[in-house]
Design a protein that fits this description.
alpha/beta; Rossmann fold; eight-stranded mixed sheet; 9 helices; 8 strands
């Protein structure tokens, strides 16, 4: 693009900037629609072998059928720790990249199979367990998808005294807590990886406002209606929304980096490094959340000798 001075302005990072991924293997959770399938398409298109980790294998196979490149489908239900353990136990060989993409948003109150509040249990605890169980195989990085909702008005925080919001459940509060947990998890995971001497990196990303089917499950009919309008008028499509995740997945970035869109309010635009709330940057809270997550899931960080890249 030419500027008024005749110089060429640098183009913004896009899918065409993904380096060759041949020989690399990636797992993308929640990969049968939205940001997940857009991430799969981009990585497979660049040469990676991509595993779609999905709750419904039939839907996963239907999605995979439309992807060019090397892909496979495996069952993973993040709301069921037995399924998470089964998925991890079946893994053989190296895993270059884990993308913790799956999530639920603003849904009516419900519980996972293990009794956890569904949004915290799926968005955070399921990915917490999956990541730690797969760490002996992961050779490059873990990218966890968070959200700008981690800094919703009212200064979201981790409700350590009532993590499952029993008796005080509100869909937006639960979602915000789970997305804050994603960032705190990334922060503490990176600290532990560095302490163990591992070269594996933990990073996070958020898509801005992307039109996906995530909004269609909102527990409020009014919010569903408003988001249908917003999806048509304001939102990026899922391919644009996946760019921050892809940037975090393939660029040479420091551990614990957080990537989001560069546009106004981080709602849309090209991927860039972005800031996070003070609550999402607190190492003491990150350590406390890690300890609680270990207690709830029964999954712990591997011994240093078992961590790939150490």
């Amino acid at each position: 693009m030419a500027t008024e001075t005749g110089k060429t302005a640098p183009s913004k990072w896009n899918i065409t900037d993904i380096p060759d991924q041949s020989g690399r293997t990636a797992v993308v959770t929640g990969a049968n629609s939205g940001l997940g399938i857009a991430t799969v398409e981009a990585l497979a298109g660049a040469g990676a072998h991509v595993v779609l980790a999905v709750r419904d294998p039939k839907r996963g196979e239907a999605a995979a059928a439309g992807v060019g490149g090397s892909v496979e489908v495996r069952r993973l239900d993040l709301a069921d720790l037995a399924s998470v353990r089964e998925f991890a136990a079946s893994w053989r060989g190296d895993l270059d990249l884990l993308v913790n993409n799956a999530g639920v948003m603003n849904i009516p109150e419900s519980r996972t199979k293990d009794g956890f509040e569904m949004q915290f249990g799926t968005n955070h605890l399921g990915h917490f367990a999956l990541t730690n169980l797969l760490l002996p195989h992961i050779t490059d990085r873990v990218v966890t998808v968070s959200s700008g909702a981690h800094r919703m008005p009212g200064t979201p925080y981790i409700h350590f005294d009532n993590l499952h919001l029993t008796g005080e459940y509100a869909p937006i509060t639960a979602y915000s807590q789970s997305k804050l947990a994603n960032l705190l998890f990334t922060l503490e995971l990176q600290r532990r990886l560095a302490e163990s001497g591992s070269s594996v990196r933990a990073l996070a990303a958020h898509p801005g406002y992307a039109a996906t089917n995530l909004q269609s499950h909102d527990g409020s009919s009014l919010r569903r209606a408003l988001m249908r309008v917003g999806n048509r008028v304001m939102a990026q499509d899922s391919r644009a929304g996946a760019l921050p995740t892809l940037y975090a997945a393939v660029q040479d970035l420091p551990g614990a980096s957080y990537v989001g869109p560069d546009g106004f309010g981080e709602m849309r635009g090209a991927p860039t490094l972005v800031g996070r709330s003070a609550a999402a940057s607190d190492p003491a809270t990150a350590r406390r959340l890690w300890t609680v997550s270990e207690e709830l899931t029964g999954v712990t960080f591997p011994q240093p000798a078992a961590v790939a890249g150490a």
